[in-house]
Design goal:
The protein is α/β, with parallel strands linked by helices. It has one domain: Rossmann fold (3-Layer(aba) Sandwich). Helix content is about 40%, strand content about 10%. It contains six helices and four strands, in the order αβαβαβαβαα. It starts with 13 loop residues before the first helix and ends with a helix. The structure holds iron/sulfur cluster.
Amino acid sequence: MSKDGGAGFLTTRVDVMVNWARKNSLFPLPFGTSCCGIEMMATLCSDYDMARFGAEAIRFSPRQSDMLIVAGIISQKMAPVLKNIYEQMSDPKWVMSFGACASSGGIFNVYSVTQGIDTVIPVDVYVPGCPPAPEGVLNALVRLQEDIGAGRTRSQIREINQRQVGRHA
Ligand code: SF4
């Protein structure tokens, strides 16, 4: 009801509603392989409470998830498994690269470790750190939600990220 007692109404577009719903109900699939996995758990616990952002309903099935969080070292042996899991997720889906090892191999500059998961699957948001602080993870989540809410495609997200990296270089 509006102030004068008349019936109120709201107009919007379907895509705006859908993007709003998507960004506020992400279902993360955790792919934690090493120490970063522990920090990911801390981000989900009550002190940092990722539930505040509507992204706490962890699913361990790729078919029920739309955000893959890769936290830790991805060995060359593990890379095909990661790719397989990513491909099993339905579209639309997003990927968070959590920490230095997932994003670039970190301190493991060796033949057996993938030098960044973006050599295997596409990445939408990177979280720096070894391990990243939970605040950084939440910041990355909010950034990703902004992109989802705005209906940005992966290439648009990539372009914006590159522009921001260029500005801070
Ligand atoms: S970035 Fe650091 S904390 Fe994370 S998996 Fe690599 S070594 Fe461990």
